[in-house]
Prior knowledge:
The structure holds two protein chains of two kinds.
Chain A: E1 6-10, H1 14-26, E2 30-35, H2 38-48, E3 52-56, H3 65-72, E4 79-84, E5 99-102, H4 107-122, E6 135-136, H5 138-143, H6 146-154
Chain B: H1 22-29, E1 33-37, E2 46-49, H2 51-57, H3 61-64, H4 79-90, E3 95-102, E4 108-119, E5 125-134, H5 136-198, H6 202-227, E6 233-235, H7 236-250, E7 256-262, E8 266-268, H8 272-289, E9 297-306, E10 309-316, H9 331-343, E11 346-351, E12 356-363
Parallel strand pairs in B: 7-9
Antiparallel strand pairs in B: 1-2, 1-5, 3-4, 4-5, 6-8, 9-10, 10-12, 11-12
Helix pairs in contact in B: 5-6, 6-7, 6-8, 7-8, 8-9
Amino acid sequence: MSDPLRILIVEDEALILMQLEMLFEDAGHEVVGTAVSEEEAVALAIETRPDIAFVDVRLKDGTSGMKAARAMRDIAGLTVVFLTANVRMLPDDLDGAAAVIPKPFSEKVFGAALPFLEECVRRPPPSMDRPPGVRLAPWYLERIGLRAAQAAAELP
Amino acid sequence: MEPAEAWRMTDSLHAEHGKGDPFAAAIRATRMAMIITDPRLPDNPIVFVNDAFCKLSGYDRSEIMGTNCRFLQGPDTDREDVRRIREAVAERRDIAVDLLNYRKDGTSFWNGLYMSPVVNEDGEVLYFFASQLDITHRVDNELQIRNEKAAVERQVVERTRELTEALAAKTMLVHEVDHRVKNNLQMISSLLGMQARTIADPDAREKMRMMLDRVEALGTVHRQLYDSGNVTRFDVADCARELVTDLVHGSGRNEIRLRLELESVVIAVDKAAPVALMLNELVTNALKHAFPDGRAGKLVVSVEPDGADVRLDVRDDGVGISGRSIDPKSFGQRLVKTLGRQLGATIEWLPADPGTRVAVRFPNGAGKEPVKP
């Protein structure tokens, strides 16, 4: 991989955190930090300046991944992707996050999601199709130029 | 003819001048309390009172005559009722009002008052005539009914609140359980996935990966059930789209093209898991055996309703049944057979020339439920 993504994982379930770390590193990316709480997540995001943060919505001691994501919005160049078992609890605009990957996810979903997200971050608009396991926020679709491309593709 | 004011002199039935007026005698003797006031005198005083009124109010005639009726009012008399009476007097019209009045001994009673002006030929109001009826019993009944109604309404409000809270608690519980089930499924697949990475033997690792696929297929079912917002219905097409796309992409076999022909079929929720697992087995099987040695090809998965049945087809243009090395006693094959039995399915393995077609057909249990109007 020419330009591996620098990734922050925010997940309070230790096993899932460990699995994600393995998945990302196997795919050649660099995990720059792992956090289990809101406070830790924000501090690490500021310190490590990752390209992508995968953020679980429910965090340790009842803290909120959504609040953490809100605090991360101001960090330049950081794309936030939610991981959650409660997709329906999220607002349509994902509260400023770019995408959401619903739990439970399969390893295959990440296998497809990582190259796609890498293109979204590094070379938008992405050339590959959006994998079924990833949902993008409307504002992000527009940001990476997918909305226009989609509209064009739907023309007769 | 007696003068018009003759009744004034007839307070006693034996009075000389009143004897000739049977109406005055009747009013004096009736059980209905009655008074007459004279609005032409200062403060509209009472100028006639019958015995029934004295009995009702507890006052002697001498205490009543010449006073204004307001002596009947007391601390709990409704000021608004009093205002309406005053208004009627000022406007010279009749009025009926239920009024809380007080007797001489301080006890209260509900007075069903009816008051009307007595007008002469010139339109001048000479008197006000008022009758009083003790309606305490009726008003008490009304109040009691009103109180009971209010109590019932309070109970309804309270019960509604309880039910609303119970529903909210139940909904929260369902969310919580859903969340935990998803998290647990995620952890099971995490464990399998991580363990698989560490297995050196390719065959054993492959088997662990296949087990991971099965757990992940169950995860897909659960996610789709709860994300749809309807936990009683399950669309096979939605499930197939996600599951099969995942499997083919996840296989890393870019030389195998996937074609999905999916028509929406809603099935009963108890069939969701076996259908997803069946689909997982059939597609995994095709990916593994139909295209050996990096052989390119096409995989077609179709889902469609067929009357009361659901049809599910997995078709490949690979090496064909004869070319496949399928062990009928393998775990995967036994799994397909068992799931088929649970679904009441017929499963046919057919040559597709080239390749193989697996045709599955099972009754759609969703139709058995009564249709709500």
